[in-house]
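Hey L., structure's done. Input below.
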Amino acid sequence: MDSAGYEYLSFNNTRAINISEGAEGRSFPSHRHAYGEIIVVGKGAKNIYRIDDRLYSLKEGDIILIWPMESHEIVDADRESATVIQYSNKIADSLFDFKRIVTIYRDLHILCINSHPVLLKKLISIIDKMVDAWHTDNNNREMRCAMILLEFMLVLDEHHRELEADISNDGGKTISDITLNNIISVTDYIKNNLTTDDLSLTAMAERAGLNKDYFSRAFREVIGLNYSKWLNAIRVEKAVSLFTEEGLTLTEIAMLSGFKSIPSFNRVFAEYKKLPPSRYRRQLLKTPEIYRT
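Output:
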């Protein structure tokens, strides 16, 4: 990967789940994507990862949870024997329980084999089952892997009490189920209506049935980002998903992603991806389909 935040990995954008093993090199620069990621740490005495602004020194068999849109980096780690599973944000968005888990556990990034040996044994077994399913020639392997992913999240959630000490946020305890549901409904609405004229904080607070100030605080607690940063990130990811549509110009992509002007599109995109959209698109299109993410 280069400084643009673009991943050269054997992940395919057309799939909801991708699994990679045996990657070369011991580092991978900081980046973020709309996919969620599960990493089983590889061998060796040195396995250092960064998630957001925090460094983690891990050992073989530990599990890393990277939630959609989180910044992360492989500083110095064994990638040859590590297993990386990516799942589309659309899977997480398809089930309310999955969205609830992303909300509650968004500050849970590391599951250490020494601290949670029984849980890790269960989760590694599930991951092994998913990897086996991925490597079959069965036409429905992606569906099987999706079902196994749900099993992984279910087992994780069943151990919530055991993991409470590892969750630094309050798990949304100050947010009622009704408010949580309303905020998630707003995020669903936005993702499906990015070209709507008014997606302002005020308008979305009204849609959620909340006053503006409380909606702003609750949104950050539920999503982990303030509203404007989250909205810009969603628009940028939408633009990236449209870059492979050869019939669309950058101006059309900007408009379809909800940007009101090309200067705004260029500025926000470069802020998130560290490259102007035109150059980012050229890199994406010249990369074979199997290596896109």
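Residues 179 and 208 are 8 Å apart (CA to CA). Residues 1-11, 288-293 have pLDDT under 50 and may be disordered.

-- N.
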